[in-house]
Fold:
Amino acid sequence: MKAFAGIPLLAMFVATACAGHAPVNVPPVRATVTNDASAAIPPPTDPAALPAVPDGDTVAVHLVLLDRTVAIAPGVRYRAWTFNGTVPGPVIHARVGQTVDVTLTNRSAIGHSIDFHAALVPPNVAYQTIAPGQTLHFAWVARYPGVFLYHCSTPPVLMHLSEGMYGAIVVDPERGWPHGAMRSYVLVQSEFYTQAVAGRPDLYEGNFVKAQKALPDYVTFNGAAMQYATNPLKIAVDRPVRLFVVNAGPSHFSAFHVVGTILQTAYVGGNPANALHGLQTMAIAPGDGAMLEFTVQQAGRYPFVTHSFGDADLGAMGAFVAQ
Ligand SMILES: [Cu+2]
Structure:
């Protein structure tokens, strides 16, 4: 060891073992809980739009847990548990190397939590359940690029997911995506398991037995059945399109397919290291995401579906219109 005099053996081992992986000097994640729920509710955002990555080293994420009635299909209102009042919750956008500074405030009726699939943290510290009236704060550093799910992980997780507690977090590679900037859309696929609220013909609530059997009444993109079949997303001829797709489940796989085109590049997990080429359909597991690129050569209407067609029939169907 004489040649390495002055370098502690353990530090050498750690540096060698971790080469090419997560950095060695990661500070421990600490969480604080305060008895204060006075935080303002951030305004709703377009669920299909990817917001800009904030400048600087820190992405401040403010999420307020709220019980809200949301529209999940035409004429169907659903009593949901939400992040910031919408299902899915807001799209979060960060870049590798940035610190994601999370403030979670519980203004709902029961305990909830948040689990970021993009984070490397001890779940018992960061993903702890907070009671109504409390605020949780913790921060983590984005280490891996990709398209990730975030969700409430309070037991039973199946119930909190089926009630609507999920969203997408996109982490850009440090030097941006391969193939440069493109028109982008975010799509979160998810299932709803419902039963009518007694005496309220247009109002529904969750049905846990249906959720356990994975027999949904609706399967949606961005929380509302068929919404993009009615109001298609605009794309342009000969201009590449980038989709950030998250499957929130809770239980069904997505077989994501755009009719009339081929996915030129598909990135498993949304990580540029996991590139596939020339796909007809991308399999996206519950709790996973993908980044997909395609280009159309002619004006027209290009439907997108999950090719698990039972689920498409329940609402997981939309369209792009190219001009
Ligand atoms: Cu919850």
Q: What stands out?
A: The chain has a mean pLDDT of 93. The pocket of copper (II) ion is lined by residues 81, 112, 152, 154, 160, 165 (CB under 6 Å). The two ends are 67 Å apart (CA to CA). Residues 183 and 241 are 5 Å apart (CA to CA).
